[in-house]
Structures are given as structure tokens and as C-alpha cells.
Structure prediction request, 656 residues.
Amino acid sequence: VPEFRKDPVTGRWVIIAAHRDARPNQFPQRPAVASTTACPFCAETMLTPPMVASYGAHESRPWQVCVVPNLYPILSDGDAFVVAPDATGLYETATSVGMHEVVIEAPTHMTSMSQLTAEQTRLMLAAYRDRMQVMRDTPAIVCAMPIKNVGPDAGASLAHSHSQIVGLPFVPPYVEAELAGAARFLKSHRECVFCSLIREELRADRRTVARTEDFLAWCPFASRFSLEVWIAPRDHQSRFETSDDLLLEKLGRLLQRILRKIESHPRITAYNYYFHSTPFDSDRDDHYHWHIEIIPRIAKAAGVEWGTGVHINSVTPEQAAIELRAQT
Amino acid sequence: VPEFRKDPVTGRWVIIAAHRDARPNQFPQRPAVASTTACPFCAETMLTPPMVASYGAHESRPWQVCVVPNLYPILSDGDAFVVAPDATGLYETATSVGMHEVVIEAPTHMTSMSQLTAEQTRLMLAAYRDRMQVMRDTPAIVCAMPIKNVGPDAGASLAHSHSQIVGLPFVPPYVEAELAGAARFLKSHRECVFCSLIREELRADRRTVARTEDFLAWCPFASRFSLEVWIAPRDHQSRFETSDDLLLEKLGRLLQRILRKIESHPRITAYNYYFHSTPFDSDRDDHYHWHIEIIPRIAKAAGVEWGTGVHINSVTPEQAAIELRAQT
Prediction:
């Protein structure tokens, strides 16, 4: 029997319907084959705007990880977020002010984060942190988010291992929903909701995928996506961009371990991850807790998801945790 | 330059970024090929639970359109929506009470709505209406929605032309967001926001795809999806399930005309549509206006969409309207 589960942060209901995995499918998936045109992210054939930052230079290589502006940005330079109503008063547009950068995670043609060295992973996280600090200091930007798309079914168009960082001029709806839920929880429970969830997940140990001294990786109770995993610091930390190098090194090791499990799971050919962190325009550090959400893209979001906002997930998070723990 | 546009109903921002269509893509799409196993929806090989309704019986055929319970339901029988917190007080589950039905739109193997007869289309809409009335009279259900998934990229798993109707025990988030926006608009403008939009779209005629005496089909100003089309009655009508046969016949003709344009557009291989209508637990008929949202599934929702809730659309709605008007 399917079950509704309520996300404890946002209050959003999800349908966990494991029996649906047995549905017949007349459209078997065929793996995508990447074309062999010159890669715009490889150092030797690079075709991007000039770098804004680079990391890991040494004798044999000018960089290990670098950051470039997105050649096809969704956000662009500007001083302020100006909203303009049209003559009818019905419609509003706004300047697309913000930043949209790409983190190239290796100078050679690596197509998966699993292949990166531990150093490249740490430098990638340092790039996320440093560029978020730059965005924090840019007046028009109030919220920044590192994002990764892997595989065509997750919206990736290039195979070379890379991420994006978007800096937005407003707090986007999904972050807003988590912030509002976290504020409600703090009021009623006098504690950060993420701290509470992490303590309970560690205690129950039914949905944990991996734990380290500093971090927990677990399948959230009301996962929207099959085999979804979240990673968060075990101690209360509200802003990712204040992380020090040592913490990033530890996070890099865990993130790579989890992504290796994700990438080697037989049903996962594509996934996204993104970082949620306290917006720059908030002076509160008590209720929101930065975390990474990793969402494998197995089933397609269909009419139910887009029409209602209610997700259907056909793998229970408890089963997901068992499968991912077993995966090396 | 990309542009933010605010959805006038919900207040949700969308990024219209037409230049992104020029991005290189290393993962060319390959068309899915349906397998040839026996179709569970063809009358001759039918494999479904017993019918709950059928339409269009005549001498040569027992039905033209029929309704069956979903063999893999996301919602099931029950008297009430009961929310149960767990022992920790952190997590809540609820009974999956509701209805989940399938409308089979032809007894023979039609794989697209374009192939249906005008009568089948009218009967399909009558089935939507009648089953919504049944759901309205079911105490645990407060909101019902006809939904269609076409093509594997839109989440369809079977090729035979069909739709689903879900009856939910709560008002889902996306309907709630539209209701809240419509209530705000009514308060400030003393008019239904949809009536206002329809009048303005008819006047400006920049985003209209088709108009009839009774309906308007247009590309909404802040479309989240490329080539998105909405259809709504031109007069204020809050509840789809109160439509009479004549109106459904007229709607069927327009819906089929629009879907023919969608299905013959060279970039569209998959789409969803769903009906939004006033929830059953609302006694207000003044501010919400039933409508159909048709969302072609060209680009994959990626990390930006799932991480922020902000959609990126690379075709302006004005350009979409030009293309769809030209399409026969």
C-alpha cells in the first residue's frame, strides 16, 4: 500500500509507492552515447570565457580545477534586482542580475567525479566556497548555490566533469520553503530542525548511508527521488562558505565515497546535486543548516509531479539506504 | 540577455533565456522504440482491474472510452486522511487515501490523441468530468485532477492513448499556490486573475495560439517549459466538473487541434497535460478559474530547477506562440 510521508522541513507531502516499481514499461532506456566533438572544458581544446579563478597549479600543470563564467549564462552582471511591471499591470519582468559560473574539475577529460583525485575534489569544494564568498560580497546577490548535473537525463549537456555556481538576486522558492519550515520548527522545538533530524537518524540508523566524525549521509524520510541522499555536517553550521580547508578535505572524501556508490548503483545513470545554505541577506544563524541534496534521476517527473507538486517515489528510503550501504 | 518573468498567478519567477538554445549538446536524443509486448489497454488483450465506467457502446463495440482503476495506484480506498506522527515527533505519515484511475481512450491501439475521433475525445472529457463528480462525492477526496503523460520523456510507460485521474485527500502545493495567488489578486483587483489574463492576452494577441467563441489557448507570459500552452474558458468558470456536454464537445475540438500542433512540432517528442480546477472543499467560486496546462518536455529539468524551484525556459512564449500558430 502506498504511503504519504511529510517532509519534516517544508511540510511537503511525498507518496512512497514501492509497488509501482513492478509496472510494465514499453519504453526501455537506451544509454546515451556522447559525441566525440572537441571538449570545450579540456585544457587542450578549451573554449570558455577567461578564467576567474584557478586552483592547484604546479610544475606540470597550470591548474587542477578552474572557474570560468558560463558561456550561456542564465544570470548576468548588474547592480540591482529591478522589477518592472508592464503597462497592463498584470506582468512583471526583472533584470537577470546575478552570476552563473562553471567549475571545471580537471584539466584532462574526466567524465565522472569518481575519477577525480582527492586533491581535485577538495579544490572543487574550495572553489565552491571561494566563489560563494565573492557572490556574498556582490551587492545584487542574496543566495548562491553550487549545482552539479551528471548525465543527459539530469540535464547535463557536456560530459567533462564540471559543476555550476549560480548567484541569485532573491531567495529561490525551494530554499524559502526550507527556511520557513526551519523557522517554524525552531519556534516550536527551540532547536534547528536539521540538528534534530541528524540526531534522530544517527540514533535510529535505518536510513544512514555513511557517517564520519563530522558528517552524516542519509536517505531522507520523505525522499522525493528514489535513492536520494543528503549530506550535512553533524554540528550546527548555517553557512557553507565559512567552511575551513580541513573540513572541506573531510567533506570531499565523504562526498566522493557517496558519489561512487551513486555512480556504481546499477539503476542510476544520471543525478543532480546542489548545496543549500543560509542566504546572504539573512543575519540569522540559528535555524538553517547547510547541506547537500543528491538526487538520482531514475523515474521521469510526470504529470502528477508537475501538476500537483507531490512526488511519487517507488523506493522506500529505508530500502535505498540498504542498497547504498551495500554499494562500494 | 536572459530575463526574469514573474508568473502573475503564483508570483513564481522564471528565467527566459533564449540564447541557451545555442548550447552544444554532446548527448543527442535518440527516439524511444516501444516494445511489442501485448498492450494491457487494447480491448483484445486487456489486462486491467474491472471497468468502473464506459462510454460510447454501439453495435460493433462494447465501448469507445473506458475508465479502470490503476493497477499500480498511488492512492487507495479509505474513509479519511489520517496523519500519524511517529514516536520521535519528527516524522509524519498518512494513509494514502484517494482514487487513482486510468481513462483508456480507444479500444484499438491508438498511440496519440491526434488519432482519436472527435467522439472519443468528447467521451474522454466526459469521463474526466463524471469521475471528478464521483470523487467530489467521496468524502476523503478534496481535489481531483485529470493528467496525461505522453512519451517516455514525460514519464509515460505505456504507448496506448490514455490518461489518469487522481483524487487527492488534500489540496496539492501547486494548486494551493495558484489559489493563494488568485485570492491575493481578487482582493487587490476585484476580479479573477485568469479572467484578467485572458482579456489581456486576447487584446495584445502576442501569445495566443488559438481562440474560439468559448476558449482561449495561449502561451503563458512566464511559461516554465518551452512551448507551454494553457487552455481556459473565456467566461469565468471555476469548476471543470460542472461543464455540460456541449461545452465538452467544443473543448474537445480545440484540445485536439492544439495537441495536433504540439505532437507535430519537430522539437516535441513528449508532453504532459493536467487540469487545474477549484478544490471540492472550497465554497468559493469567485477567484479560481479552471484551465488545462500543456507542458512539452523538451529540456530536462536539471539542478537549477530542482535545487531552486526557478525554471529556465529557452524559448520565449511570444516565439512559442508564433511557432505553434504556424504548426497545423
Summary: The first strand of chain B starts at residue 3 and ends at 6. Chain B has a mean pLDDT of 92. Residues 205 and 218 of chain B are 9 Å apart (CA to CA).
